[in-house]
Design goal:
69% helix, globular
């Protein structure tokens, strides 16, 4: 392992985490503290929503998403410096859009969650998957549903592996499989309506095509490279990939 390549990921990753906390958890806090009501979007593709079964065992790809995103970003940045900043630019743009969307057009899926039947049961009767699902319900809250951040962040990982033409095929396949499984789990856990999944995938994909030739990538890379060098996270002699 080349620690020089790994260290250069630290500051971009810190910015990514800040954006995540501000966008998602900041809006969750605001919604709960100030009673920001959320709109139920179940009427969009209602028949599809009603046909989706509740499958508590799909909580596992849902929670695996968290280390998947972290390791995905680190791996992309480790392999290719410029690709890391392409993904970081997409993070900045899509997370900002989501943050303002959650703030001004908040959504709520509590009624959808209740169709799981868990709220009508004694928690002592839950199996492990059901217990974990119920914990996620409590921890994440029913707001910030549209677009789905689970789908958005998973699709950013897909875009990242698409950018790297030399990435091992096995890693690419695993990334695609995990990303699709995570997106499906948002439906089968009653965490999101289908419109949330659609927008969660469409937003980063649209941003990618609009920004793939943007000079902002080079600007981000240059600024972070200078900062990394000042903090000795990246030697000045390291060639840009």
């Amino acid at each position: 392992m080349d620690w020089k390549k790994l260290l250069r990921v630290v500051l971009p990753f810190v910015l990514l985490m800040f954006m995540q906390f501000a966008t998602y958890w900041g809006n969750q806090w605001y919604a709960e503290t100030f009673g920001n009501p959320g709109k139920d979007l179940s009427v969009i593709f209602l028949e599809f929503n009603q046909a989706v079964p509740f499958l508590p065992w799909t909580i596992w790809p849902y929670v695996i998403a968290y280390p998947f995103w972290i390791l995905g970003f680190i791996y992309i940045g480790y392999r290719d410096k410029t690709n890391m900043y392409r993904i970081l630019l997409l993070v900045l743009v899509t997370f900002t859009i989501c943050g303002f969307w959650y703030l001004f057009f908040q959504t709520d899926v509590q009624a959808w969650r209740e169709t799981s039947g868990l709220f009508a049961r004694d928690p002592s009767t839950f199996n492990l998957s059901e217990s974990l699902t119920f914990w996620i319900y409590a921890a994440a809250g029913p707001r910030n549903a549209n677009p789905s951040m689970h789908c958005l962040m998973s699709w950013l990982c897909v875009i990242g592996v698409r950018l790297d033409k030399k990435m091992p095929k096995g890693i690419k396949i695993m990334t695609w499989v995990l990303a699709i499984a995570i997106c499906i789990s948002t439906q089968t856990l009653k965490q999101h309506y289908i419109i949330d999944m659609i927008t969660g995938i469409a937003l980063p994909e649209a941003a990618y095509w609009l920004l793939k030739d943007s000079k902002a990538v080079g600007w981000l890379e240059a600024r972070f490279t200078k900062l990394n060098q000042r903090l000795r996270l990246e030697p000045s002699s390291l060639a840009t990939e």
